[in-house]
Prior knowledge:
CATH superfamily: NAD(P)-binding Rossmann-like Domain
Structural class: alpha/beta
Strand content: 15-25%
Radius of gyration: 19 Å
Number of strands: 14
CATH topology: Rossmann fold
CATH architecture: 3-Layer(aba) Sandwich
CATH class: Alpha Beta
Amino acid sequence: MGCGDVVRRVLPELVLRWRVLALVRRRDAVLTHLGVRQIVGDLDRPASLHRLSGIADAVLHSAPPGDADGMPGDARTRHLLASLRRGKSLPRRLVYIGTSGVYGDCGGAWTAETRPLAAKSARALRRLDAERQLRRLGHHGCCVSLLRAPGIYAADRLPLERLRSGLPSVTAEEDGFSNHIHAFDLGRACLATLLRGRPNRAYNVADDSLMKMGEWFDLLADRCGLPRPPRLPRAEVAARVSPLTWSFMRESRRLVNARLKDELKFGLRYPTVGRGLEEIRMEMSCSG
């Protein structure tokens, strides 16, 4: 569910282990070439989901939240679960890609999966609603595992336009911590969770980087040959960036990824953003 960028990065490996079906709004030649069976449907149109009932042993749910029916919370997850429950049997396993935003602002504290959730933004609240819906499914025989992802980056997922536009960062003294994961590592974590995820268990899927948000933008600017963004006090930055951008910038936490490594036996291919950006730079140099 939600066969987008992250999942597609690991589809070649996924199809070696599973018979893969994907819910799509329209058929995709790339998925056909990979041997993925496509089911045409739309999570915003519940009537189109009848074919999902009882069709899968495991579900990888990466669709972003939706509220197409005007109700609060994540309507897409609600529609998906209603369809799955109509079958004679539930999937044995479900993995959900959510967000670390469900923790809210932690004031820079180390944040493990046991921390109470305090989502504040509308985006994070919808993700929190999805988690709660899925946990209820986990009480009925389905092994539900929740992946809480921070900022996702890759060669084609870098905030370069933000740097080019000269949007400011917060001064070092007032800046908050930022967390990251390479899109390929997030896809690999989905595979590991399908194999080893524990029931009703959440996992922080973050790399080992320890940096503040301004440091991330400075490093990105340096690696891409762009000017570093100016540093301003928090109040001035909040007034100059969009509300959506500020909803990310105003929160600070340092994600603990011990469960990811210990329980899922997961090794990061890109343990730091420095390592990831260096490989991205080398790939761009070779292709250009």
